[in-house]
Specification:
Layout (H helix, E strand, L loop, with lengths): L3 H4 L3 H9 L11 E10 L6 E7 L10 E2 L2 E3 L7 H13 L6 E6 L3 E2 L4 E10 L12 E8 H4 L5 E8 L2 E10 L2 E4 H15 L1
Parallel strand pairs: 1-7
Antiparallel strand pairs: 1-2, 1-4, 2-3, 2-8, 5-7, 6-7, 9-10, 10-11
Length: 192
């Protein structure tokens, strides 16, 4: 359950709570992918970096997402994929990121097994966006993410099946699907 004290979690609190989850567990059933869940350590007011994908992409066009993508043959694992993709997509150097652990794997309806890698980012943060893939990068306050009352469940039909997913809205941005599901997982891990 959310409380104002939870919103004041510090770097050490997050590291302790996420680190117990350990290393990623790739399911092997779907195409492997990883995303970085980048928590920016602004001291008392932490935030999470998200991106909006460009509208012309073949998959997930215009959607809100984490920096990340498909594992490539040269990647040593999910952490390497998440850090490489983050550098490519938003220009955030791995040297500014302390990886603290991974959340549970999220399988998507579009055929990916996504490992969320949680990392704490040391400010200042500046972006160098890959303009082909990323339309914008923005931050959502951790206090918003850690309040489970901000999430709602919706459903829609996809490929003749009813899909249930979570939605989190922030400043006229609709965060839904796997991204909202990962944020809700983070919320639950950090507020237990």
């Amino acid at each position: 359950m959310y409380s104002p004290a939870i919103a004041k979690l510090g770097r050490d609190d997050i590291t302790r709570r996420v680190a117990v989850l350990g290393a990623p567990s790739d399911s092997g059933r779907l195409r492997l992918a990883a995303v970085l869940v980048p928590i920016v350590d602004h001291g008392c007011d932490m935030s999470v970096i998200l991106t909006r994908r460009t509208d012309h992409l073949a998959e997930h066009a215009g959607q809100i997402s984490f920096p990340g993508g498909r594992r490539e043959p040269g990647d040593s694992g999910s952490v390497a994929t998440a850090l490489r993709e983050t550098r490519e997509e938003i220009g955030l150097s791995p040297e500014r990121i302390e990886v603290v652990g991974c959340l549970g794997v999220h399988d998507t309806t579009t055929g990916y097994s996504v490992t969320p890698v949680v990392g704490i980012v040391t400010p200042p943060v500046s972006y160098a966006l890959d303009e082909f893939e990323v339309a914008e990068a923005f931050e959502v306050p951790l206090a918003i993410i850690l309040d489970e009352a901000n999430y709602r469940r919706e459903q829609r039909n996809y490929n003749h099946k009813t899909r249930v997913y979570h939605v989190l809205e922030y400043r006229e941005k609709m965060i839904w699907g796997a991204t909202a599901g990962i944020l809700l997982s983070l919320c639950r891990v950090l507020t237990e």
